[in-house]
Amino acid sequence: MVTPPASFTTPSADTIAEAIQRSRSARRLRPFTPPPEIGEPLPRRVPVVIVGAGPTGLVLALELSAYGIPVIVLEKQTQASDGSRAICWSKRSLEILDRHGLGEALRERGVTWNVGRVFLGADPAPLYSFDLLPIKDQKFPAFINLQQYHVEEALVEALTSRAEVDLRWQQEVVDLQQADAGATLTVRTPVGDYRLRADWVVAADGHRSALRGMLGLDFSGRTFEDNFLIADVRMRAPFPPERRFYFNAPFNEGRTALMHQQPEDLWRLDFQLGWDIDREAALSPGSVDRRVRAMLGPELEFEYEWVSLYTFQCRRMERFVHGRVIFVGDSAHLVSPFGARGANGGLQDVDSLGWRLREILRNGATPSLLAGYEEERILGADENIRNSTRATDFMTPKTSGARALQSAVLSLAREMPFARALVNSGRLSIPCSLRGTTTISPDVEHFDTPGMEPGSVALDAPTGTKTWLLELLGGRFVCLVLGGGEPASLPPGVDCLLLGRDFEDPNGLVMARYAPHGEATYLIRPDQHVAARWRAPSPETIQHAWRRSLAVS
Looking only at Cα atoms, what is the longest distance across the chain? Predict the structure, then answer.
């Protein structure tokens, strides 16, 4: 049982049902605006239609609007998500959002954390702790915790000032027909149907994707036989902002449990329940209240914000690009919530997709460029699924051998650092390395810079009192030159960023992280992945790597 602060003495009188209803009714309803296409005999043509206004679809709309590409976003619902849903936003997600002016504001609003603690049984002392940001002096922390509806509200607000984006609520796609040069969507509204003709359609409509069904597509993978209860409760608790994971929790019948702090005195509680349960009974107010109070104690005052029971799958589509329809986020792949890989993986999808659509729609690249998106994000999905599956198998062992392994590893973890690496309470989301993919140029020289090899995300570092390297890179192709002169020529659309001319390295961290043994030149893609690196490349070498990143032979 968690020890409550002595100042709280009485339980809340709110029922679960009342709290959930109050939470949902407080969400901002978005008005329906009749679209101008109603009654038009021919469909209107637009470059991109995004179906789904969750974080993945909204971030892609921001990305495309930054490139000046007109976008229509269709959302069948009337408001942001009910309940917290996704709450853990990784450093990489914050870096992506920061390119659109939202990273700092969301960090300030969220709960920052870098440390996780693992507990075992009734012992109040942690089995061990771990730091998710071992490399310090970066703009953003390893994670912030912030309710998904707050992130969505911030994204919607940012999109209101983007003339390129038309965000439409209560508008549901009910039919999709493809042709070589585009796709035609039939959209249902409260006042009638209309049609849109899109060069590209992006399916960001979630794990129950209607567009996936319209194309007769499905997932393959594994469904896990276990149930988990989420309870978001509002309380004032004495814990630091960190991830607290419990193995063999005595307050949860010896099963696992998880605790995360969110803003506004909100806490995420997550309980493993087992597979063979009465789901209706498990969601009853009495059952939920008994479980939560067993964890928090009888005297801690709290209110329910959101309660949900879930099972999960680790599955993905065989391919993510189908003609003129591109799948992103949960519509393309599913993982367990342990490890915060769902929403963060979706943002990495659109980070890889956005600049490619720009190259196709603005710079004349061929649709074959999307093969790189599919290759990279299938690699990322498989890595997320692999880690998610391993975490779930370790956390919820189903065989005597798996239980023996878990017990042995946990018994050694307190004293033996090697065993801690084997404890899997949900490997936390990090960007997937693209090393070995067809669009990344491998090293031809030796570099002693772990984590900065081609295919990695560029590592941040301070470049002045209030400036950071990733801010300077932005969302463009950049030739980053450290300790050398500017190349004689660069490919079209590639900017040069020269140390000493364009930025400073006051603490020496840029050189330490990128070129510890002398000069180096990096080609950085618009999604801030390292496309190639050299000590002193020729213009022809840079041109070759740039063409490879664009899938140009």
Answer: 73
Closest by CA to 30, choosing from 153, 206, 135, is 153
Neighbours of 83 (CB within 10 A): 18
Whole-angstrom distance, CA of residue 522 vs CA of residue 454 = 9
Q: Where are the beta strands (DSSP E) in 180-224?
A: 182-189, 192-203, 220-223
In terms of Cβ atoms closer than 10 Å to its own Cβ (0-12, 13-18, 19+), residue 489 is: exposed
The span from the first CA to the last CA of the chain, in angstroms, equals 62
| Residues 110-168 pLDDT 10s | 999 888 999 999 999 999 998 888 889 999 999 999 999 999 999 999 999 999 999 99
Residue linked to tokens 């450093």: 91
pTM: 0.92
| Residue entry with tokens 């950085």 | 524
Phi, then psi, of 282 in degrees rounded to 5: -65, -25
Domains belonging to the chain, first-starting first, are 50-222+314-360+367-386 (3.50.50.60), 433-553 (3.40.30.120)
CB 331 within 8 A of CB 48: no
